Amino acid sequence: MKLYTxxxxxxxxxxxxxxxxxxxxxxRIPAPSHxxxxxxxxxxxxxxxxxxxxxxxxxxxxxxxxxxxxxxxxWRIFMAHTDTVFPDTDPMPMREENGILYAPGSxxxxxxxxxxxxxxxxxxxxxxxxxxxxxxxxxxxxxGLGNLKGSRAICKAYGHETKEMVSLDGTLGWAxxxxxxxxxxxxxxxxxxxxxxxxxxxxxxxxVLSQMIVNLYQMKVPDKAKTTYNVxxxxxxxxxxxxxxxxxxxxxxxxxxxxxxxxxxxxxxxxVEETRPLCQxxxxxxxxxxxxxxxxxxKKHAExxxxxxxxxxxxxxxxxxxxxxxxxCNTFLNAGVPCFCTGCVSGEGAHTREEWVELDSLGTxxxxxxxxxxxED
Length: 377
What we know:
Number of domains: 2
CATH architecture of the largest domain: 3-Layer(aba) Sandwich
Order of helices and strands: HHHEEEEEHEHEEEEHEEEHEHEHEEEH
Mean pLDDT: 96
């Protein structure tokens, strides 16, 4: 059923400038993972101001706004994450030049949050007669060590009664249709250390950790599916004239396939045990785990994917580029819910402080989001 009409298109065109201003307001509110309180409160209050009678912030800092009658059937969930990859708790710099908005986190995922909020406002004002209820969610903790906390909470609460989930994330033309799973660890090594001259010969935690990293980078990845690994940070030591007593690193591996993740786990654990005799102590802490695809109804998943592809082509005249990825869809796909993730803004520099978005592209993003929302199976 298709409820996307010229009236809807006109309403969205009339609200493009409001969406741009909404993006500017959101970009001024810092929202590192696990600390999205201020941005969540803004989104909740904005929805209330624009007609939401029922909207709340849950324990995971998700902003949840239902539309329609929950008795009509399973939910269709539309999400965009409020957190950014940056740790800043003070407002970050923002500037505009020639229709470009420069701000860290502007595209990932703040612009998509603005589009999601505007789609909710359209429903609250125009009241389209959708056959299934909608759950609009501005969710928390998608980035990094947020470990999909927000998405997990929504999936736990609603996954068993959800027919499909659409995540607005990334940029126009980019889409994710399968989950890339991952496991993330903090590894800490301790040795006796000492003075660099007086205790020369004592074991150095940095050297031990470095040798472990060399061994990790000699692992052979499975060829069943794309599989990767990475040491993202290292830290340790006291001074230039101190034999380091402690050193730590963050390590992850990813794959589209669960069996490949298990192969990497086995190799990782083997290297851990080979390293233990080289130091006083070695600890391994699991910081995050993102699941791969689960037992999904692939026929319904393909139907959702086709609707999304058709929506993008109708708006832009171009084809979507599909790839597996690590997004809020992971939790729902693992739970067997058909999912699709695509972006509603043009820009570059995601996860850098030079990130920017093209403000006029929000108009295209609104039309795409509305087609996704107002076209049902």
